């Protein structure tokens, strides 16, 4: 995995980088987080369904923190739907 990231990564070793990798079935995702101190690997698997994965030509995607959060929760971040807000109806 480190070799895959090293080939794709053009950042300096001192910068903080995150890489997302999805399993072949689409139900597992790995987040590789690197900074100047070392690497952390986080893995998440969905019990049902698949992660909504962006389609790209070069394999690189820049996600906002909100998009990453929805991706990790298994929410379709491409087409989010607003739910009714709780409150008093008059």
Automatic annotation (TrEMBL):
Q: Where is the composition biased (Basic and acidic residues)?
A: 8-20
Chain segments carrying region Disordered: 1-20
Q: InterPro entries this protein is in?
A: Transposase_IS66_Orf2 (IPR008878)
A Pfam family hit: TnpB_IS66
What domain of life does the UniProt record list for this protein's source? Bacteria
What's the protein name? Answer: Transposase
Its source organism is Escherichia coli M605
């Amino acid at each position: 995995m480190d070799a895959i990231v090293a080939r794709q990564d053009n950042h300096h070793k001192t910068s903080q980088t995150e890489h997302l990798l999805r399993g072949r079935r689409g139900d597992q995702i790995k987040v590789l987080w690197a900074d100047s101190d070392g690497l952390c690997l986080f893995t998440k698997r969905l019990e049902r369904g698949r992660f909504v994965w962006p389609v790209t030509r070069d394999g690189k995607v820049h996600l906002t923190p909100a998009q990453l959060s929805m991706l990790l929760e298994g929410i379709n971040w491409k087409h989010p739907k607003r739910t009714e807000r709780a409150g008093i109806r008059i």
